[in-house]
Amino acid sequence: MDNILQSLAAIVGEQYVSNRQEELYLYARDQGTMDPHPPDYVVLPGTVEEVREIVLLAGREGIPLVPMGGGLVLSGLTIPLRGGIVLDMKRMNKIIEVNPVSRYAVVEAGVAQGQLQSYLERHHPRLRHSIPDAPPMATVGGNVAIHGSGHLSQAYGFHSDMVNGLEVVLPSGEICHTGSCSASPYWFARSPLPDLTGLFLGWFGTTGIITKVALKLYPKKKMKDVLMFVTENPDYVPDVIYRVTETEMAEDVLVLSAPKPDWMAGFQITSVALTADSQLEMDFKRKMMRQALAGYIDDREGGFMFLAPNLKKNFLETPQRSVARYADVNKGGGFEYVGAIMPVEKFPQAYRSGVEIAGKCGTTYSFIVRIIGRAHCMMFAFAYPFNRADKEDVQRAQKALHETNAAVLDMGGIPWKAEVPAQRMIIEKMDPSARQLIGRVKAMLDPRGIMNPGNWEV
Amino acid sequence: MELQFDTSICADCATVDCLVKCQYMHFDLESARSERQKLNNGEDSPVLHNCATCYACEEYCKLGNHPFYQIVDLQEQKGIWPAPRPIVHQQVKMFSPKGDFVPREFAGVPVNLCLFPELQGRLTGRLFEGTSVFFSRDLFCNLVYLHFAKNSVIKERVPGVIQRLAACNVEELVCFHDECYALYASWAPAYGLEVPFRPVHLFKYLIDRLKENYSQVKKLGLKAAYQRPCSTRLTPAKEPLLDELLELIGVERVPREYDRENALCCGAILRMHGREELADDINKRNLDDMVRSGATACIFNCPFCYLTLGEMVAAKGLRPLLISDLCRLALGEKL
Known about the structure:
Mean pLDDT of chain B: 96
CATH superfamily of the largest domain in chain A: FAD-linked oxidases, C-terminal domain
Largest interface: A-B, 24 and 23 residues
CATH topology of the largest domain in chain A: Vanillyl-alcohol Oxidase, Chain A, domain 3
CATH topology of the largest domain in chain B: Rossmann fold
CATH architecture of the largest domain in chain B: 3-Layer(aba) Sandwich
Low-confidence stretches of chain B: none
Shape of chain B: globular
Number of domains of chain A: 3
Distance between the termini of chain A: 37 Å
Strand order of the largest sheet of chain A: 15-12-14-13-17-18-16-19
Oligomer: heterodimer
Number of domains of chain B: 3
Mean pLDDT of chain A: 95
Order of helices and strands of chain B: HHHHHHHEEHEHEHEHEHHEHEH
Low-confidence stretches of chain A: none
Helix content of chain B: 40-55%
Strand content of chain A: 15-25%
Radius of gyration of chain A: 22 Å
């Protein structure tokens, strides 16, 4: 056993560290198009103390450290580009506290979305958190670290906006708390303190390892319904969104479009999730939604789809499993998307550009757009499934992703959870002062450059 | 393919029931006569814009004309859209033939499940022993497009459907969905299209199978409200078969305001048309009427009505049951 492996085993126990080829193979890649690169070690810490010791060891030895949650990011952010140690956080899966009155939960970063969802259903049925449409094994820590979004994002913003505070192991090995918990036993808010939490959200693990997250919880309504409004002119969509969000009654708002199945081909389908505590409330919300879009119906330019119960139940699921099914439409296990965060008014341009790029690159596509925070922006996912076993197919998807990133930046959007080539494109466009500030923050927190190197390199 | 419609029949009609009896538009005899005349002249009329496409005028006309098919043809000719354009286009794409049906000899009695694959597992038990249940977009009846002023789509697709079924050497076709039966028994003859096999309505099929298994039939002693579907309006002559069937299994079809000729639409099509308030109104009236009637179950002939109203009916305390499921219960089978 080499020295590093021995040291890691001394920290976490032999069964939670590995440098076996078959495991390194798995941790070298994700489901996206980024080229694989193996780590030297994989370690699964069980406590914040163990994380701290691993960070200190990595610092001493100058070994890269790559934190990983569910490993579902798709854009290569947990691929150890320069080798080193992958820190798989899944063992840190304790739900530490739920404060039902102040509506927040404190969880270890490796708690899975499905785990928290089922815990709340069982113990706090009137509470919920915002769930992404990722497989349930996606972790809370990983998702907030990439500014994820989910079923409550239309109402409350990005998942990172729902964070009240963090526990973080800094590259120096210090354990740091941000938000109210830094000065109080309660994890109720990030305000009114200097917002240190932002130093770790969206940085992809380059500034520290998130070990605990305080997450806002929200009232859970008793009933759920979904309405699907169909248009066949992308120019209408920003206005449809405006009208829907103006009602303040929609919970989750998505826009879907894809060449398959036939009922989606050529249409933009705005899916509006409604929740209520009584039939009266639900009926009222449905009525308001119809009223908001009545002009389109009267002009015969848009209408509500009839959803048979068997189809509707797919759209009522949280998370929506159909998203994962679509992800493998080519039955090749590959799926990646450019999730562009952009203004809602860019929908028509983004839609046309995505169709054009897919056509040019010879790929299939699907667009899944999630409205964030009352239409303050949208996450426009240009998704390109591919067959991992078919090199040409992978290259087609890579080309489409690259062109989409460029098109998104040209339109004024910003690729979300950007893979390294897209990060470079963003950095090139960035205000030089902002770019320098990123560099200074990173250098201050991680002077040896061991934290997920290759990412956000300015 | 031209509609066999005789305007001289209307000229001699004393009652203009096709419009006077309409549940969604209100005409006295005089205004009905005037609008009927406009339609027969091929002119625009409020009828073309306000039609709920419930098919009922086909049943109200006792003189054998086809007032509803005429309305649909005129709507399409004049570019009148009963539903928003994207909804119509989506419907047209959604059920278009895929071209992947390979003609074959059916091993058992062919039973066409229309396009309700989710019900496939329900066609089991003694009633469906020895059948070949199938569904395919290539064999879809397409009559749904009557609701969307797209008779042209039906005209374009149906000859192929008939041809494909004929290529399977089908002699008798059991239609699980009332609307499929209506295609062969009403729409095709109205447009002069020959059907080289005999359509068998589900009621007739169920009666025959129940009679074969009569010793095992247990009278259910159930009071049930019947949700009569729009497609029944195209072939009302089979109505007595339902009464016979229900009597066989000991189910009382409770008399109520919105049954038989006065039946109300399930509302799904009206919602697709964007007429949500009307749909809410008729759903409420219909469900309240079911509850008032003392029924403990609601029987559905049309799977689409079942999908639309099933949950609403259950919320009112009535058990929603497809007619085929009801017959299986009478044979002591578990659903």
